[in-house]
Amino acid sequence: MKKLLIAASLLMIPVATPAFGSDAAHGPAKDLTIPIIATDNPGQYGGHAYHGSFKRLPPVRLDGGETYNVGVIKSKAVKGEIPMDPVNRTWHQEDPVRETSYNQYNQSWEQAPATIWNDASATEVPMGPQNLVMPGLVVATVPMVKVKSVHNDKDIAFLLTWYDSTKSETETMEDKFSDAIAIMFPVKAGSEPSFMMGDDENPVHIVYWKAAWERDIEFGYQDVRDAYPNYNYDMYPEVIPAIGQTIDTPIRRYNEGQRQYVAAFKLRNISRVDPERLTPVEELNAVGFGTLTRQATNNATGNGVRRFGYWSVVIKRPLNSGDVQDAVLTPGSKTMMAIAAWDGKNKNDGAGGNRGPRKNYSNGGWIPLEIE
Amino acid sequence: MAKVRNWQLGREMDYPYEENRPGRQITMLFDLNKCIACQSCTMACKTTWTAGKGQETIFWNNVESKPYGFYPLAWDVKVLALLGEQAQPWSGNKYNGTTIFEDLGMNQRIKGYLPDEMDYAHPNLGEDECLKILDGEGDYIKGPTHKNWGFFFPRICNHCTFPGCLAACPRKAIYKRQEDGIVLIDASRCRGYRECVAACPYKKSFYNDTTRTGEKCISCYPKVEAGLMTQCVTQCIGKIRLNGFKSADYDKIMSKQVRENNPIDFLVHVRKIALPIYPQFGTEPSNMYLPPVHVNPDFLSQVFGPGVENSIKQYRNAGKDKELLAALLLFGVTERICDTFKLEGNETVGYDPQGKEIVRVPLTEPVYIRQVKNLKTGAFLTNNS
After folding, report:
1. Contacts of B52 in chain A (CB under 8 A)
2. Do both B199 and B274 map to the same domain?
3. Does A245 lie at the interface with B, CB-CB under 8 angstroms?
4. d(Cα A70, Cα A121) in Å, to the nearest integer?
5. Residue A22 predicted with pLDDT over 60
6. Architecture of domain A2-221+284-371 in CATH?
7. Model pLDDT for residues B12-27, shown as the tens digit of each residue
8. B320-331 pLDDT, tens digit each
9. CA B230, CA B219: separation in Å to the nearest integer?
């Protein structure tokens, strides 16, 4: 990166970076450590600075070379297992001081080994504010999502990358909401459900990733102690001191009787309270707004990583899971998909951050998906 | 938006769903002249329902000291500001301002705000302001001073006819029961969007940090189904509360065909002595209050609507008004819900739905005069002498 900046200044090209720029309105500099050519000024979307297009990203390669499709998502056929890493984790260690990344040999981004995503073509999907049902958004808070897709003979995976200046990954506090993204397919092949989460005749299949679940998996189920490390509480009635339990005993150790004090846990609302979560995604079905329902069996997996203000999320699911509630995707066919994204931090009207219907959806609804 | 009829506003108003009233409506009456803020109700509720993990800052029942005590912080002031602080005009019994369902912004379903997590951290912060204990440097409220007055304000979920929480839930996970009008959250369907927390103008829908779902007052439905009053009513040592069912049928209310022998209907619809809390919010709350007689009437009018003057006049006269006294004396005398009551001579009698007598209370307690001295032994029986 340093090399590039020096090269640019030698060529007398005006270079400015938000990190060095004087405009304080663009938020904390830490989130915008990637230098951007000043002539393509970052636009203001939904209250935070946004680069406008992934094509204008600096030569830092989050996921390899960029060949862009317009208006269609193409899934590339690959051989072998599809890894769940959206970026090369061993390689991309962020260095906040030098504002760059390096590996253990101090090699820079350009020398990073290729991932499976390098040669997959990308599609920039413009997002619009959901304002068809209330409550909604007035302006898009996630204006653009970049999609790549690969598949082998068994699974299909999607790499979704978007810019979000704030990392929101807790739902353990009254007024905090999580960043999230979801992809949607028609359940019946060839059908064209309403892009508004399906309709009565044509159900849709949704795979939903959430940053808070990513944190639950990494650090254990986030509870009151994680949100308020210094809190004290005399005693919960469900806690049994005689067997060594304290107020910090995690709820996954609760027996059925104790779970009655944690109502949604007892009722197995595992969309919300799942202390033994294995994957940060869940599969759902819907037949219109307000009908979203979790599937009994979860076949999809996911993994999300945050680098330089970008979320990179891989969602992988079987092409044909055998579950009648899941969409069947066939290589060599054309179908469609839609995307929804949430910026958990962004408040719209004082009623809290993005969640539920306060979301961004792929503009125009369905996007054609060509599976190679 | 559908048009619904809200008798507390004296007009039709907008609501996201069609009008659908329950057969009968669970109601709680509070005599604010008698509340001493001992928080027995708060603890009765807390120990029964919300003592578990994640419910640390949840109080389905709370008692706040008005005018400056709040839980969560500044809830009513903030909601009134959304409606236009001083612009809530009444002409007679008709409300001419807007409710939380009307005059919405472009991305709004309901006018509301989501409290900060710290708003729940200090219940009743500011309670001493009206007593000027903190006068001087410690005051956090500056502004026009007023004559010292205050009252204690116990609040639970109002189980509204047009609930803001129910209207706001994008998943339709909140429902109002047809048999008794209790509003409940389906904890297995909730996805923790907190739209109900933002929408409820009384801020009586809460968020559980551990389960990450919404939780709210369930009106002790296992007790109510068994014909018993709720925990907060039965544990009230001041006997300020009465639990029961009132007529929920709009047409009956309007044609005054309410049941005069039902204590709740009698106090709410016949005598109109019990008044709704912030009727201008538009949710038609079911809980009714007997306003405190010594408080600034302007403040009371803002909180309880236009019926305050009539209510206070009757309350001051209750000693001479035997029929009214008969109803008021049913407060806190039994755990069972009275379906009807009757004034019999110097006694008021409460009956269950089958017409069986539940309780009998004298209007005037008999006076016993104890002897000063035991005449046999010569021992003093009082310490008067």
Report:
1. 236-238, 261-262
2. yes
3. no
4. 10
5. no
6. Sandwich (2.60)
7. 999 999 999 998 999 9
8. 999 999 999 999
9. 6
Higher pLDDT, A29 or A333: A333
Same domain assignment for residues B360 and B251: no
Q: Which two tokens stand for residue A282?
A: 């869940």
Q: Are A353 and A179 in contact (CB under 8 A)?
A: no
Alpha helices in A11-157 (DSSP H): none
Q: Note whether A189 and A334 are within 8 A (CB).
A: no
> Is B302 part of a structural domain of the chain?
no
Which structure tokens are listed for B187? 């904890």
CATH number for the domain spanning B275: value is: 3.30.70.20
Q: Is the ipTM of this complex over 0.85?
A: yes
8 A C-beta contact, residue B30 and residue B290: yes
**B218 in the same domain as B169:** yes
Interface mutation target, options A134, A171, A173, A174, chain B, most CBs of B under 10 Å: A174
Domain ranges across chain A: 2-221+284-371, 225-266
The verdict on residue B315 lying in a domain is no
Partner B contacted by A216 (CB < 8 A): no
CA-CA distances (angstroms) from residue A258 to A261, B189, B369? Answer: 6, 21, 54
**What total number of domains does chain B contain?**
2
Closest to B198 (Cβ–Cβ): which among A136, A269, A352?
Answer: A352
Domain span at residue B351?
337-385
| Helices B308-316 and B297-304, axial angle in degrees (round to 10) | 120
Of the candidates B104, B170, B210, the beta carbon closest to that of A356 is on B170
Q: Which residues pair with A133 in a beta bridge?
A: none
Residues A34 and A20: their CA atoms lie apart, in Å, by 10
Question: B330: part of which helix (H) or strand (E)?
Answer: none
Claim to verify: residue B20 and residue B97 sit in the same structural domain: yes
A230-265: pLDDT as tens digits: 988 888 999 999 999 999 999 999 999 999 999 999
Do B344 and B292 share a structural domain? no
Closest CA to A26 of A144, A168, A166, A177: A166
Least confident of A95-99, A266-270, A305-309, B221-225: A95-99
Domain end call among B237, B272, B297: B297
**Range with top average pLDDT, A340-349, B161-170, B372-381:** B161-170
Distance from CA of B58 to the nearest CA of A (A): 11
Q: Taking the CB of residue B137, how many other CB atoms lie within 10 A of it?
A: 5
Residue type (1 letter), A82: I
- Residue A174 sits at the chain B interface (C-beta within 8 Å): yes
- The confidence score (pLDDT) of residue A42 equals 40
